[in-house]
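Following up on my earlier thread - several people asked me to post the actual chain instead of describing it. Fair enough. Here it is, all 188 residues.
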Amino acid sequence: MAALLTTGCQRKTATATPANADSTEVEADTVIDDSIHTEAYIRQRVKHIYDLVLEGYGRNTVSQNSQVNTEQFTSAEYNNLRREAQRLAPEETPLDVPGADYDHWVMGQDIDDKVSMEVISVSDIRATTATAKIRVVNFRPTEVTLPLVLENGDWLIDSFITTFEVEGESTVFDEKKELKSYIEKMRN
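Reply from S.P.:
Thanks for posting it. Predicted structure:
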């Protein structure tokens, strides 16, 4: 936990050292505080975010209508899109907003007492972006891709992306992309 609280202000230029087969490369440009650009740190950060959210569910203090706001764990752009989509939604159809009919933290409408999350992988680490793949187990396992952005000195979730089957076809649902499409449709 201490690693999550420590941040530095050092600038370091990544070198062209060959990456091990199981490591994640950081882009070869200047990054700020390269300790937060490691796979281990990003895994720990995503786990920490989910631990806080799921702990809140256990105490029944985190939900879209509760005192604890999960916006602290998601990017400013994502939060703004979500708020704008909710603002534009007609009162009679608020569940038409992408992602409004389920909870993206647990990938469902109901919450299993044994809900859990594990980080499967971290990849594509750049100066301000990275990607985490997680498995959320809420009654059944669901794999979720989390694009991450470095904002205000730490990693935040920028979208929730899942793949599911509809009539034998794989469909990708990228919540941020769907929010953008919804807002565009509602404005036109």
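Residues 39-58 form the longest helix (20 residues). That should answer part of your original question.
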